[in-house]
Design goal:
Distance between the termini: 18 Å
Low-confidence stretches: 91-103, 368-376, 537-545, 547-554
Number of helices: 14
Oligomer: single chain
Helix content: 25-40%
Largest sheet: 8 strands, mixed
Structural class: alpha+beta
Shape: globular
Strand order of the largest sheet: 6-5-14-15-16-13-17-20
Strand content: 25-35%
Number of strands: 27
Length: about 550
């Protein structure tokens, strides 16, 4: 079968190729550039803990070597500390859970890394993968579709045609794929603007991030954030007026000196300025994310990033959602409805995130009004922004898909657990088929469903004794009969789950179903629903052409 064509070699396109390769799907990555990433320390990215774990599973080693997880988050207003939030630095990148209502979990620390270091780590991983071919200097200008696949043409001295089973546009905000398909990209321009600097210095809170609203020194902007990077480097962002003047080098240096002095008792500490820039944020959402065999992901499908939301993090969530669905479709193990669910799940989730950000902006950036003077309003605004930055609440929490078309029909055997249907599962410790104890998240991304049995006490018994006792033989027989590949895992406990509960987990870590026990027929039906139903002969698709055929087929 033809490989998947991926247009765009940014972090999203590179990650998608690796995620497909992990599931046995070859791909061709068409890179418009030369294959080299510009070194820009001021252009850094923030990944929530679960997405950082996903990228590490893909073989990207630079996250640990050149990224940093924050030890805490500080929120200041004027001259006083509003909130100090310790963050969980667990290397598993997860939140520990507790059933005690008075013992809330600390938020998992986000991972902060320069984008060029992230991209280099992904390219290095691709260099070790035989199923991926990256083609530099390949500018797309034509897409043609038929019943059996997609043909794409790239410009060049000779002009080249590429044949694929599907094509995914990961080619950024000015996506050629989106334009060739005629898909509208409505939204708002310049929602926020930030002056940005990467500098090496010492600040009073090493290893912790800071959001400072309404700093007390003269001429300060409405908001400043400082986020640590490795080797004593900090990224500092100054919120700019929506239609302010251009940021000159002299003005930026003045901002740096005033800010550092304001944070360091009036004296500017020594610093080394490494990189600068202006970061403009837009909010846009493509009307469609799928046209037959062509799909959109990342900035080609959505733009966001204001008030703590994270654009690349959402792009990686597109990859996490799409890769296993595209892989099952490529292996002919799923119906066409599975790919339809990519748009319905991810577009709905991103639209919700954009809506939350747009609704928050007037109160957060309005500069006055009655809400500013209401009791608790300031603290509420700070809490909302904090949640966006640390990955909680409507601006930052991992998305759930409660109304997914892949949800099973309701039956009496379904039993609720602490995780709602469609939400990401907790990263509990599990026993794998080979007898090793790992985190649940370590078993994701391999294109198979996970069947998790909650069996208290198994940790104190030798695996060879309980593996052939109790409900295990019946469960393993039921899993072998499922319509798609699945793996049995065992855990001592899961939040809100009774003993012998069985959880069905999708390859992207979202809960598909939970049962009160081993119920083979209902487990089969839920697994079938999770793949969109049985594969069926597809209706012949109309040929879709975009662009002009200007060269012979190669």
């Amino acid at each position: 079968m033809d490989p998947v064509i991926i247009v765009g070699a940014g972090p999203v396109g590179l990650a998608l190729s690796l995620a497909l390769a992990a599931q046995g799907v070859p791909s061709i990555v068409l890179d418009e550039g030369s294959g080299k990433d510009e070194l820009r320390p001021a252009r850094s990215v923030l990944l929530r803990a679960d997405m950082a774990a996903m990228v590490e599973r893909l073989g990207c080693t630079t996250l640990r070597d050149e990224g940093v997880r924050w030890a805490g988050w500080r929120s200041m207003r004027r001259g006083r500390l509003i909130r100090h939030l310790p963050l969980d630095l667990g290397l598993s990148g997860t939140e520990e859970w507790s059933e005690a209502p008075d013992a809330p979990a600390a938020p998992a620390a986000p991972l902060h890394i320069p984008q060029h270091a992230l991209a280099r780590g992904l390219r290095d991983a691709i260099g070790r993968e035989k199923l991926i071919r990256v083609v530099p200097d390949a500018r797309l200008d034509t897409i043609e579709q038929d019943r059996d696949g997609v043909t794409a043409h790239t410009r060049g001295p000779d002009g080249t045609w590429w044949r694929g089973s599907h094509l995914v546009g990961c080619d950024g905000a000015r996506s050629t794929v989106r334009k060739l398909l005629g898909i509208r990209f409505p939204g708002r321009t310049a929602v926020e603007r930030h002056a940005v600097a990467a500098l090496r210095t010492e600040l009073p809170w090493p290893g912790e991030a800071l959001m400072h609203r309404q700093p007390p020194w003269r001429g300060a902007p409405e908001e400043i954030t400082a986020r640590p990077l490795p080797d004593g480097v900090w990224r500092i962002d100054w919120l700019l007026p929506p239609r302010g003047d251009l940021v000159t080098p002299d003005a930026l240096v003045a901002r740096i000196r005033e800010t550092l002095a304001g944070w360091c008792d009036g004296a500017t500490p020594p610093y080394e300025l490494i990189d600068t820039g202006v970061h403009t944020l837009h909010h846009r959402l493509a009307r469609r994310w799928r046209v037959d065999r062509v799909l959109l992901a990342g900035d080609a499908a959505h733009l966001l990033g204001a008030v703590g939301t994270q654009s690349l993090d959402e792009g990686f969530r597109d990859v996490d959602n799409l890769a296993w669905k595209l892989a099952l479709t490529w292996h002919r193990s799923a119906s066409d409805r599975l790919l339809d669910s990519y748009q319905s799940e991810r577009r709905t989730a991103v639209a919700s995130r954009l809506r939350a950000a747009d609704q928050s902006l007037p109160a957060l950036r309005g500069g006055g009004g009655l809400r500013t003077y209401l009791p608790g309003a300031t603290r509420g605004h700070d809490a909302l922004l904090t949640e966006g930055h640390v990955g909680r609440g409507p601006l930052g929490a991992p998305p759930a898909y409660p109304h997914s078309p892949l949800a099973p029909a309701h039956t009496d055997g379904l039993a609720p657990v602490g995780t709602p249907l469609g939400a990401p599962v907790e990263d509990v410790r599990v026993t794998a088929p080979d007898g090793t104890t790992v985190r649940l998240r370590d078993r994701l991304g391999q294109g198979r469903l996970l069947v998790l049995l909650v069996a208290p006490g198994t940790g104190v018994w030798d695996r060879r004794h309980w593996q052939s006792a109790g409900v295990m033989p019946r469960l393993e027989e039921a899993v072998r009969a499922l319509p798609v590949k699945a793996e049995v895992l065992v855990t001592e406990a899961y939040p809100g789950a009774p003993a012998h509960a069985v959880l069905l987990v999708r390859p992207d870590g979202h809960l598909a179903a939970s049962f009160s026990g081993v119920l083979p027929e209902e487990l089969y039906a839920a697994a079938d629903a999770a793949r969109g139903g049985s594969p069926a002969e597809q209706e012949p698709a109309e040929v879709s052409v975009a662009g002009d055929r200007t060269a012979d087929m190669h």
